[in-house]
Amino acid sequence: MASRYWVVSLPVQNSASSVWNRLQEQISRHSFDTPLYRFNIPNLRVGTLDSLLALSDDLVKSNSFIEGVSHKIRRQIEELERVSGDSNALTVDGVPVDSYLTRFVWDEAKYPTMSPLKEIVDGIHGQVAKIEDDLKVRVAEYNNVRSHLNAINRKQSGSLAVRDLSNLVKPEDIIISEHLVTLLAIVPKYSQKDWLASYETLTNYVVPRSSKKLYEDNEYALYTVTLFNRVADNFRTSAREKGFQIRDFEYSSEAQESRKQELERLVRDQESLRSSLLQWCYTSYGEVFSSWMHFCAVRVFSESILRYGLPPSFLACVLSPPAKSEKKVRSILEGLCDSSNSAYWKSEDEVGGVIFGLGGDADNYPYVLGLGIVMTSVEFSWVTRGQCLKGNATPVLLSSIVELMRANEVIYMEISDGIFDQEI
Fold it and tell me: pTM for the whole thing?
């Protein structure tokens, strides 16, 4: 059964522990079936307000890319597992994916917190891009071998009219001499009596009673016929006029052995590549998902700064509310965002028909919210709600800008261009 995860950032007025305790109390009282976890985000380097606004736009594009790569790898795993019949739980750093999400810990060694946010995001994007390129190369190599093998199998298992006949014909079925030749006739299944009654008279010099059935499928039967070599072309023409197909065939034990060895080699190569690709996908999915969670942490952090201002004071957590409890949980979260700015994030119905919010978006909340879907194979997707957009100077964004300037004793000069280059 699918589980739906939310990543939420709530403003902190006094202490994060008090907000956490209040949230736990409200969830246990009004939505006890909603799992709740802390989402630990370290104090990252903020940079300038202008860089945060620019980064906020880039995060949307980068998230779509990282999410897409994650889904590509997961779908490839599902396809490979269907072929092999195996099924293993996906893991990240040795733990189940949902456990990694709900117990997320920032990897300081891989992503130093003192690095600029854009540098962290670019590093994540570059790492995922390399994995995607490697995936394309590996999948192309595997698909090339599989396509070649499938083509051979189709020739060996298709209709007698087109399939390879080398594994159906034995040396003793063929007579090749200076004057005699054996032809292979493809006879419609329901015309076999007609063939047996007429093949000796299709031309002169056909060896009587030389036709023998070698194989039969759902549509056709394979027969041999021996005749003099000099009338072979006339026999082909007469047989075609009667609805019988004469297949060109030359028996060669060396060629048959070569084809057999090639088939065995392709089978081994396909299994080796499938196993190697599957193991690589397991490992790479964990790397991409880990990178995705760090990316989401950066996004929660940057959106929270733009929403709540400086210094960073917010509580990030992960919830998994059942569908029936989503409205109730949203109400709890809004209650914990008790501020005069909350009205700007209400829907049209809640504020008497007047739409407030950023950029006229009525689907906003007074807290930073990311939505995620965790399936049996685990997906996580981030959707920003109420993102502060550059150029939309709402009261909430203005108050954040004022707080940013006050915290750093920045003298307000001009707001029309939204350019603040001072380091925060």
Answer: 0.71
